[in-house]
Amino acid sequence: MVIPRRCNFTQMGRYGNRGEQCCRQTAERSVNWLEMNMWLSAFAFKEGKGRNAIVIDPSFIKKSGKQTPYVGTFWSGCAGAVKHGLEILGIGVIDVDLHECMMLKAVQTTLEKGEEKKEMSLYDWYAKVLEDDKVRLQRICKVLVADSAFSKRPFIDRVMKMGFHVVSRLRHDAALFYTWDGKPTGKPDRPRVKGDKIDVRNIDMSKVEKLELEETSGKAYALKAWCKSLHRVVSLVIHELPNGVRRLYFATDENMSGRDVVEYYTTRFQEEFCFRDAKQFLGLTDCQARDKRKLDSAFNSSFTALNVAKIMCKEPGTSIGRLKAQMVNAYYAQRIIDVFEKNPNTPLNKESINEIFSFDAEAA
């Protein structure tokens, strides 16, 4: 947080108490980032009501060179195109009532392009990452929230076998059917599970529950529906926006209320802000090392520093940018005091020191 520009090993040696080589060697050590960030998230969410969920989302990391392990072409949502670099899978935890997200772990995508077609798909690899840490993640909760790219049957089935329930979003043209509520025929066939097809532009109001959503505009309708692509009954919410666009949110837990489905999914976007703040203020994309261990340390230390900064920003009106500006100013002020051997606590110096701390913080 006290490094004003790029956060790399050279800058750490310049601004820290240890040398550059020491920082490089320390980054090669193994650290249990998940347990550390789970403790930080529990401390940050102690005022919540316990409505938590695990969130996942991949993020593109720009990286130059060709010798970095698993460097390649990945989709960049910001650029809207495929670009050369790295990709990480961010795993976080959200609190629906506090409307906040804390990052737990970042894992670099280590799937080669050849492997993606032969052995496993990219979404199989994402599921494998969750499976490796499922025991510790399920200590927090068993609800997994992901964007619409993850609403594929192979991924959903594999994650549900681990014990998770998934909240996500379907395509606008997904094939959906009302659940069958007729009486059994008594014939020796498989029981009927789906009824008429759902027309999202002409909903049968007798089979849905209208939701009153204060946070979002538009109309929302909740019901249980049979999803053809997932081959299962889901708790569905049809959200009709004022401009006529319809969004389809779902949860694999049939007993989850429609309001919870909407609140869980909309809170997922807080993870996007974690990526934004880590890239803008905490040097998530600054490390240009070619060692996978050092890259893993750089990604996870950036998110851990972000979690600590969020806990420090609990005061209203304090942002990550304002906090970073104050910490940079405090660092420079302390360096000046140490060099000139001045006492900052004297009445003459105290006012000037406070002015230095707040310099540039207002603009941030």
TrEMBL record:
Residues 142-307 form the Transposase IS4-like domain. It comes from the Bacteria. One of its GO terms (molecular function) is transposase activity. GO terms for biological process: DNA transposition. InterPro entries: RNaseH-like_sf (IPR012337), Transposase_11 (IPR002559). This is Transposase, IS4 family.
